[in-house]
Design brief:
The chain has 764 residues and is an alpha+beta fold. It is 18% helix and 41% strand. The strands form six sheets. A 16-stranded antiparallel sheet has the order 14-15-16-17-18-19-20-21-22-25-26-27-28-29-30-31. Strands 10-11-9-13-12 form a five-stranded mixed sheet, with helices on one face. It has a three-stranded mixed sheet with strand order 1-3-2, with helices on one face. β10 (280-284) and β11 form a beta hairpin.
Length: 764
């Protein structure tokens, strides 16, 4: 099937889907009984800006059927397409994947009013009034809740009433982090969160047996004027001594006495006293290891253990120890138990960490369809992995891959690559203290790679090696530091036509043999919580530089230069540049079925001293699955440069500056299937005239060269990975002649003005 026919077929399918969506909305009341109504829309109208309607929605007892893009009841429409004859598979299928109509129920409306009133009272609006009204139109019910909040009760004064001096000292030392502030609304949910905060605080300061139920609150609203005085107190410890009998005592602080690691062949041996008595015992630093299997060396356990003998018990450090051990992925069974020892005058805990080995070796083979920046093809890969090669959680991987990646009817790329790496579950650096290694999730990767690529106009070999550090700090900010990354790029073959074309431009420097010795740093943060329906954002910044050390050595030793006045290492020039990238995405959650994502990406690379242009593997490309999707990969820009479609012109479509601005509306269809509508804008530019003068960045014209695109996409979202198909269309093409740049014209061509992208993962 030709690319034109394939694109036309997919466009027809998407058009049919859109038509079906429109038609199904016309018969959604098909299965609504006479005299009843479909709950079509629900509105919540609070009279205060301090209360958001999306925060209240979960308290409603009845919600309408979910809508595609918050407008089209797609799932209900699918259900309505079925007929009552459930003997036919198509009717059973439509009813299974679709949603039955939600019939309006006035009793549930009254229940919703009560729930909304309770919510408002919990938020401090004790005199709130909640009413509702419903309008009927063509078997559809439009329900509206009106909330008159009234004056809220506010906190006038807040204090802690703690008689135990030890507890009082701990709580007051952290009082700056209290969630309760005078002047805030009298919010029951905030009070509950404060009780949980104090409980965690005390459990992290040795109070092993403390529980949230020991934290009480006294509220006094008799002072008038909607003011409340609050006192939070702590009840004494209760111990049951008999049937319906108990005694009270002060809360006790616990310390850690001993830490025992117990490694067994099988978790069923935990209860076998005969096996436990024969375990070999080894002491290292401040931990004891008892084992009958050679599973792990002592040092990694020592580094991953955040608790020490003699330390005050800390529940948070206990949880982090478990998380750090689990992240090594070498244990089939892992559990931490505590046992109370000592007497009432000296409360202590022994910690027992039980572990059994998991399978750590694997050999996998896969055949895959590929989409490498728009080049479709077939590849095969063989990978061997060992997850505990040096008995310290070190992950060794070796892979070999071969494939042919091609753009239909244009060019072919053969690629053979191999890679080996060792990942260490800690930072391999002699200058770091143990506290840093313990308090941060750290990883070191040592890698080497080799690839051989064959294209129509040239072939290239890339060989590299490096060391990379990764760690997450206490604020869940991820860091990556490429301490050393060395790559040698060798081009054994280049066609005469390519040599002739690029010889008169700066592009020739990108297609010469060269060395890259770079360092880089990336920092990223996301406030997204798993399974959360709250708005969230992510930000990522990276910077890298190359060639500075080599340039300093070359200048100091008066090293040889080539005809381009570039220093050489041996006979090979090295790249010198600085490159910076910024990426930001904000996700606005409309409801559980709909989300709007806003994204901006900026990047710039600047060659200097030993280089006149960025190496081709470090340059930016426009268009593709993660850029402006109306263009295929590497076909947009730079600026308003217009390619004639040859392989040589294709080489010129790269730049030093990158801009991507995107808006995407994501909505769930059925099962794991999702639909997206998107708007994209962006382009690439060069800093110098590289034979494409129209692509050079100029402040007085760059905004006129920003391309615009739009489109729709289908996604299969399996949570742990996403497969997507996006169909992008050109809206504004800066490479077109004046008068033809806006593509809403009679001469619009589906083969020239659209692009189809198959990819894995969300674009941003």
């Amino acid at each position: 099937m030709s690319f034109y026919k394939m694109t036309r077929k997919i466009a027809s399918i998407l058009f049919i889907i859109l038509v079906a969506l429109t038609l199904t909305s016309c018969q959604i009341t098909k299965y609504v009984p006479d005299g009843q109504y479909l709950l079509y829309k629900v509105k919540i109208l609070p009279d205060t800006k301090n209360v958001k309607s999306y925060d209240i929605q979960p308290y409603l007892r009845q919600m309408p059927n979910p809508k595609l893009f918050d407008a089209i009841p797609f799932n209900l429409g699918l259900y309505s397409l079925s007929s009552p004859d459930t003997a036919l598979w198509i009717n059973r299928f439509l009813r299974k994947v679709g949603d039955a109509p939600v019939i309006y129920d006035s009793t549930l409306t009254k229940s919703s009013e009560l729930e909304l009133k309770r919510y408002m009272e919990n938020k401090g609006y004790g005199n709130a009034v909640v009413t509702s009204d419903v309008k009927y139109k063509k078997k559809k019910a439009y329900l509206t809740f009106h909330i008159k909040a009234g004056d809220p009760y506010k906190i006038h004064y807040f204090r802690y009433g703690i008689l135990d001096d030890s507890l009082k000292q701990v709580v007051l030392s952290d009082s700056a982090n209290t969630l309760i502030k005078p002047g805030d609304n009298f919010d029951i949910d905030v009070l509950e969160s404060e009780r949980i905060r104090i409980t965690k605080l005390l459990k992290n300061n040795g109070y092993y047996e403390f529980d949230k139920e020991y934290v009480g609150v006294i509220a006094d609203s008799t002072i008038g004027n909607h003011q409340v005085d609050l006192m939070m107190y702590i009840k004494p410890m209760r111990r049951i001594i008999g049937r319906e009998q108990y005694t009270t005592e002060s809360h006790a602080k616990y310390t850690i006495r001993d830490i025992h690691y117990i490694t067994l062949e099988d978790y069923t041996q935990i209860l076998d006293t005969a096996v436990l008595s024969k375990l070999k015992q080894k002491s290292y630093k401040n931990i004891t290891i008892n084992s009958n299997v050679n599973l792990i060396r002592p040092y990694p356990l020592y580094i991953k253990t955040l608790l020490d003998p003699g330390m005050v018990y800390n529940e948070s450090l206990m949880d982090k120890t478990y998380a750090k051990l689990s992240s090594m992925h070498i244990f089939k069974y892992l559990n931490i138990e505590t046992k109370q020892v000592g007497d009432s005058a000296n409360r202590q805990l022994d910690c027992y960490v039980y572990m059994t080995p998991d399978k750590v070796q694997s050999l996998s083979a896969q055949i895959e369809g590929t989409n490498n920046e728009g080049d479709f093809g077939l590849a095969g890969k063989l990978t061997y992995a060992h997850g505990n090669i040096f008995r310290g959680g070190e992950v060794f991987k070796f892979s070999i891959r071969g494939g042919n990646e091609s753009i239909i009817g244009k060019r072919s790329i053969w690629d053979v690559a191999t890679e080996a790496s060792i990942g260490l579950p800690m930072l391999l650096c002699p200058f770091l203290k143990r506290d840093f290694l313990r308090n941060n999730n750290t990883n070191t990767e040592i890698y080497a790679n080799f690839s051989y690529q064959i294209r129509a106009d040239y072939s290239r070999i890339i060989a590299g090696t490096g060391i990379r550090y990764k760690w997450n700090d206490k604020k869940d900010i991820s860091h990556q530091f490429d301490l050393f990354d060395f790559n040698y790029v060798y081009l054994p073959y280049m066609s005469n036509s390519l040599k002739k074309t690029i010889n008169s431009s700066l592009l020739k420097y990108s297609y010469e043999d060269h060395l890259i010795m770079r360092i880089g740093y990336t920092i990223a943060y996301s406030n997204k919580k798993s399974n959360s329906l709250q708005n969230n954002y992510s930000v990522r910044c990276s910077a890298e530089t190359s060639g500075n050390l080599l340039y300093g050595i070359s200048a100091a030793t008066n090293a040889n230069k080539n005809s381009n006045d570039s220093y050489l290492v041996g006979r090979i020039p090295f790249a010198q540049y600085v490159k910076m990238d910024f990426d930001f995405a904000f996700r606005h959650v409309v409801d559980s079925k709909n989300m709007v994502v806003y994204h901006i990406g900026l990047g710039v690379g600047i060659p200097y001293l030993n280089s006149n242009i960025l190496p081709f593997e470090k340059r930016y490309y426009g268009g593709g699955a993660n850029s402006v999707r109306g263009w295929s990969a590497r076909s947009l820009g730079p600026g308003n440069y217009s390619s004639r479609g040859s392989n040589i012109d294709y080489m010129k479509q790269s730049g030093d500056i990158n801009l991507n601005i995107n808006i995407e509306y994501r909505t769930k269809l059925v099962w794991k299937l999702e639909l997206a509508a998107f708007l994209d804008a962006g382009n690439i530019w060069t800093l110098n005239d590289e034979g494409t003068a129209e692509g050079q960045f100029k402040f007085n014209r760059f905004y006129k060269q920003i391309a615009f695109g739009y489109g729709i996409g289908l996604r299969l979202n399996f949570d742990f990975f996403v497969v997507r198909l996006d169909w992008g269309l050109k809206a504004y093409d800066p490479a077109r002649p004046s008068g033809e740049q806006w593509r809403f014209v009679p001469g619009w061509k589906i083969t020239e003005d659209t692009a189809l992208h198959f990819a894995v993962g969300f674009p941003f």
